[in-house]
Known about the structure:
Elements: E1 3-11, E2 14-22, E3 26-31, H1 37-45, E4 52-57, E5 60-64, E6 69-70, E7 78-81, H2 93-98, H3 105-118, H4 134-147, E8 152-156, H5 164-180, E9 185-189, H6 192-198, E10 201-206, E11 209-215, H7 216-221, H8 226-231, E12 236-239, E13 252-256, E14 262-263, E15 272-281, E16 285-292, E17 295-302, E18 314-318, E19 325-328
Parallel strand pairs: 3-9, 3-10, 7-8, 8-9
Antiparallel strand pairs: 1-2, 1-4, 4-5, 5-6, 10-11, 12-13, 13-19, 14-18, 15-16, 15-18, 16-17
Amino acid sequence: MSLCVDIHKKLGVFSLDMQAEFPDAPTAIIGASGSGKSLLLRCIAGIAVPDTGCIALGEKIWYDSTKHISVPPQRRHAGYLFQQYALFENKTVAGNIMTGMRGTKQEKQQACTELMQRFQLTALAKHRPAQLSGGQKQRTALARMLGAQPEVLLLDEPFSALDTYLRSEVRQQMAEVLASHVSVSLLVTHDFSEAMQLCPCAAVVSDGRIVEQGKCMDLWHNPKTRACAELTGMRNFFPLPDDLQTEKHGKYCLGIRPEDFRPAREGDAVTFSGMVQRILPGIHTDQVVIQTPQGMLIWTIAHDTDHLPRIGNCIALSADTHRFHILKIDKT
Length: 332
């Protein structure tokens, strides 16, 4: 069953206006900080209450302002994984995992044992959160969430408090959790590569609205808005050249990924010429920063590229036609 959301909520000068249908598959909610991603999850969970609108999981209405329905969080059966895990400091790992479980005492203990085995927590059963590492806290929070047998999984930037090594380790477990969950799963993140690894679909949030939604690979290869393009790693945006002007309504710009540039050739429809200002070294590639009349340009090149540019060089770049993206500027 799908999760349908059509809500409005105003917080000070910020307005959340969300209309979306999320399928029974993992979906990433991607957006910059302050775009409304976490607020959307809190409204779905019932922690925050929209001003108007409706939220429904299949035929189950969780919120409807016109019918004065607002199901409390504990009755929505939505598993919520907070950024900082929100473990109970006065409870052990086992005690935290059994929080929210339904069934007899024996059934809870059996389910807890199985979850601790699944997440390598058996040896830590009697430890309290203050005695755990970041990765152990993360696994405990995951086990607690699944122990309540939620119908919907809501994951609010679950890797934000982990270092690079732990993030990679826990991400593998998260992938297993999402793959085994057969209902709606929403993962909030600002990292598009993370979204692609964990979710087949994504919704891009900008200024409190969903501006694009679809398969991750489609959003990567063919973004329609600047907000989506920025989140997928595009860094070069320029005014539309005259020969690429569109008759569509609204404001548009030209977007090009740093890795899609190449030296200009005779006959290229669009070229960018300028002087190399800086070269930012990387492990496998370098980023060349070029000042052009249209603005600053970033070109990503491999270390084994012939004739690497130097600071002060004048250079002309272009790209194959299908590498140019005409993007709607969704921000006002």
